[in-house]
Amino acid sequence: MGNDPEKRYRGGKGCEARINERVNVCYGYILEGGTRRQIAQRIADRFNVSERTAHNDYKMAMELVKTEQIETRDNLLNQIQGLRLATVRKALAKGQYQTVAILLKDMGAVIGEVAPEIQALNAPVLNITVEESRQSSLPPAAAGESLDVAALPLCEELQQEEPGPG
Question: With the CA atoms of 100, 105, 107 and 108 taken in that order, what torsion angle do they form, in degrees rounded to the nearest 10?
């Protein structure tokens, strides 16, 4: 395979040019649709390369697709927002307020404005837990039961003092 004359391109395009050609064809196949395996097989058959090379070409073509999509996303968002604004103006002129409301909601979602329901879900939550800090000498009260304060034992200091007449 290393010395196979059919695999060599003497006097023809250089190695880099052949790779770019395969990647560009693979890019076209990706846009047409199909699985990775199908596209790699088409590249391998068309250019008489190994499947591993075809998969490498597919990987490079996918990087091109990703780069292109990232670059065009902002432009597309701007164009879509412009179309929405134009449609809002026309709908307002015709009195189609429901359409205006829907378009404004869509525009708000694009710029990061969220619905009140979502804001409420993301709001911070305050939880307060009261724990008994120490054991008290008071008997536990049942629900709805009142305590007789006179029957409770007082601190030793208070028990030793006698209430005076004034």
Answer: 140
Q: Using CA atoms in the order 112, 113, 117, 122, what is the torsion angle rounded to 10 degrees?
A: 50
CB atoms within 10 A of CB 24: 14
At 107, the pLDDT band (50, 70, 90 cuts) reads confident
In the chain, how many H helices and how many E strands?
6, 0
Separation of alpha carbons 60 and 20, rounded Å? 9
DSSP secondary structure letters along 23-57: HHHHHHHHHH---HHHHHHHHHHHHT--HHHHHHH
- pLDDT of 104 reads 86
Query: Nearest to residue 78, comparing CAs of 105, 110, 103?
Result: 110
Dist CA 56 CA 54 (whole Å): 5
pLDDT of residue 3: 59
* Token pair in block for residue 13: 């395009």
CA count, 13 A, side-chain hemisphere, 81: 11
CA distance 99 to 101: 5
pLDDT of residue 74: 77
